[in-house]
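re: the backbone from monday

yeah here it is again, tokenized this time
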């Protein structure tokens, strides 16, 4: 397994829509292991493939609280098929937007259809933190970031900060 470099804003790849996975095979399973290792190393509770510069519709998630009780989950071609009317607010962050956190409102429950690592069709009904993480990560597959839910002013402040950082790194 290896830890992959995580792409941060303003890298334009983060705005690209990801393509559906066509085949669940050993190389995809190996890539899932690398994504999980990268996510745990960061550390984060969710990672979309596009965040490691691979524009395919695949996510890794683990919302367990303790390291000893890890519950890695991999979602391939995830699709939200139902959302609840009740909203929920969580303070969100993103490995591609380090050190920025904001309270974001999303549906409290979601039903997601996806393929697992054996290529089997599955359905999960999620609530709590898992529901938020799934929505946040599925947004990544459509080139959407959590800062898109902020006011234009706040979003532009964040983007400006990261553009400045990128410029400094380039010098
Ligand atoms: Ni994110």
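seq for it, each position gets an aa:
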């Amino acid at each position: 397994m290896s830890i992959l470099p995580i792409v941060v804003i303003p890298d334009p790849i983060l705005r690209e829509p990801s393509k559906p996975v066509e085949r669940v095979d050993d190389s995809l399973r190996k890539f899932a292991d690398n994504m999980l290792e990268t996510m745990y190393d960061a550390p984060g509770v969710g990672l979309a493939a596009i965040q490691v510069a691979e524009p395919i519709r695949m996510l890794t998630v683990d919302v367990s609280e303790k390291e000893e009780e890890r519950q890695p989950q991999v979602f391939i071609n995830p699709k939200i098929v139902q959302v609840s009317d009740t909203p929920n607010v969580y303070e969100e962050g993103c490995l591609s937007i380090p050190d920025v956190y904001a309270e974001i409102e999303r549906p409290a429950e979601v039903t997601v259809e996806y393929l697992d690592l054996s290529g089997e069709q599955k359905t999960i009904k999620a609530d709590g933190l898992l529901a938020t993480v799934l929505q946040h990560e599925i947004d990544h597959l459509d080139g959407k970031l959590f800062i898109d839910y902020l006011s234009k002013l706040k979003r532009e402040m964040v983007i400006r900060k990261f553009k400045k950082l990128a410029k400094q790194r380039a010098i």
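Residues 5 and 117 are 23 Å apart (CA to CA). The chain has one domain: 12-170.
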